[in-house]
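Morning F.,

Quick status update on the modeling queue. The single chain you submitted on Monday has been processed. Sequence for confirmation:
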Amino acid sequence: QLQASGGGLVQAGGSLRLSCVVSGRSVSRYTMGWFRRSAGKEREFVAAIRMNGGITYYADSVKGRLTISRENAKNSVYLQMNSLKPDDTAVYYCAADPGSVGSNYYLPRPYNYWGRGTEVTVSS
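Structure tokens below.
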């Protein structure tokens, strides 16, 4: 089970930190991803991290503003969101994959497990 939290309402330029805690399994060798869905749009990739080794990947739209990190001992991943923009408004989902995502880390489909999402609203 994946539990995402940390969303909320913030003004443009502000910061939020999202957390995703995984229970019921160890994700130490998983790929963990953050995706988001805003109104009228498809779910889109935000960031991903290899829990074994810590390699990170980012969507171009968030590079330099959002940072994904991991804490294997707590079976958790985080998304530090700085310099937020109204376009970042969305429901953010964390996802987990045990090993099949490979180079397709930016696609939702390969991820086996999904959390319910946490809503982020950025006001202008």
